[in-house]
TrEMBL record:
Residue ranges occupied by any HTH tetR-type domain in the UniProt entry: 5-65
Superkingdom, taxonomy of origin: Bacteria
Known DNA-binding region: 28-47
One Pfam family per UniProt: TetR_C_33
The UniProt record lists the keyword DNA-binding: yes
Name of this chain's protein: WHG domain-containing protein
Upper classification of the organism: Bacteria, Bacillati, Actinomycetota, Actinomycetes, Kitasatosporales
Keyword Acetylation: no
Length: 190
């Protein structure tokens, strides 16, 4: 019997907050149960297990992130859209480290394909890249380039790994310039 007041959505939102506070790896059913002052078993009426909770958290965070990105890129194209996309991505990753970490875990591709937020992510990302005249298989390669660049930069920035005296924002801006150049002059025929 479900506990009054607890819902799957409420648990996922609390798990998202816990992830940002304590780290994604510290999101457990026990930690979540303590947050609500209930026994672990009370949560099983709302989520199947820890993997189910973490999958729901990944979908929740992915939806939040793409909502921010969509708002940032609306009405923009080319370098302006790329910079807005990248800025929203970076801002989300730095403001919500636990939620962001949830979006980086491998998930069942069938589940991903069914999730509206992930379809929307693909639509927005591929739409932005089509402005550069890219088509498959180059679109997939470009998505991988952007994701790995954004993720790597954000991961290093989050742990303070950029120790050089150069302003981190200026380096970020140069990174976007370099990506724009790479996308504009994408190598063909491969």
């Amino acid at each position: 019997m479900p506990r009054a007041g607890l819902t799957p959505d409420l648990l996922v939102a609390a798990a998202a907050d816990l992830a940002d506070e304590a780290g994604f790896d510290n999101v457990t059913l026990s930690a979540l149960a303590r947050r609500f002052g209930v026994k672990d078993a009370s949560l099983y009426s709302h989520v199947k297990n820890l993997q189910d909770l973490r999958t729901r958290l990944a979908l929740y965070a992915g939806a939040e992130m793409i909502d921010r990105i969509a708002l940032a890129v609306a009405g923009r194209a080319g370098k302006e859209a790329l910079a807005a996309f990248a800025g929203a991505y970076r801002e989300y990753a730095l403001q919500h480290p636990g939620r962001y970490a949830a979006t980086q875990v491998p998930m069942d591709q069938a589940l991903v394909a069914e999730a509206p937020a992930f379809r929307r992510t693909a639509d927005i990302t591929y739409g932005m890249l089509r402005a550069y005249g890219l088509e498959e298989p180059d679109l997939t390669d470009a998505v991988r380039l952007l994701r790995s660049t954004f993720h790597g930069y954000c991961a290093l920035e989050a742990v303070g790994a950029f120790g050089a005296p150069r302003d981190v924002q200026r380096s970020w801006d140069r990174t976007i310039d370099a990506l724009h150049t790479a996308l504009t002059h994408w190598p063909g025929g491969r």
